[in-house]
Amino acid sequence: MAKDITDALIKSVISLHDKFKHSHKKRLDEKPQERVWQGRGHSLSSVLEMETAKNLSELYPEYYFLVDYPISIYKRGKRLRTIYPDILVLKNFTPIKNDKCEVVAIIDLKIDLGYANMEYYREINDKKFSQKEKQIEEAELCKFNYIVGGYSEEEKRKNDEIGKLKAKMPGKGKLKKIFIICTKGNDHSRSEEIEGILKKKGYKVLFLLDDKNLHPNTLKEKGKDFKRHIQGKKTDIEKVFRGL
Fold this sequence. Notes:
244 residues
């Protein structure tokens, strides 16, 4: 079990690193005997999301953590849009009667900024980023399915039995928004810019690995380096999560 928030994030990064190491080893070992070869590996961002949510849930037993859930947000009964937060943090949640359920925080995570859509964040062609953030701030309610992607008859029946789950949005200026980027490695000199953009939208931004030579996507064992570096950011980490 994680000792504190810093330890929880260390465990998440090391779990991600272990998955990357396994992927590298598999590609090195499989080619001689296999007739099907894989090029680019599948994204491991879901590992970072799930491990972070699980580690946080150990520290915050009063909260529920929805990972990669489509969330429809509403204002005065009108649906504004669907958002896809990496982690949605809820309190007073039950899947049966959730009248008192409230949204506490949104946590978004990225491994690095290599594939970040900077045109979206810079709003070069449109204002979709600002529009989304404004609607999140103004939303009064959100709704989501019990089972996401419930395509089988049994899953559909379960969703129908339970109905749409709901949570009250906290209101403008009260929603805690956290954006965690695992490493500044592979950032294409975007780190400072994107941090400034996100802070203007009310996000607390956290880079876990400031050293651009430290990246979890490596075959080399770097667990001790990651732990030492993230422990050095303990004060920043606690500041970002204060009040959660």
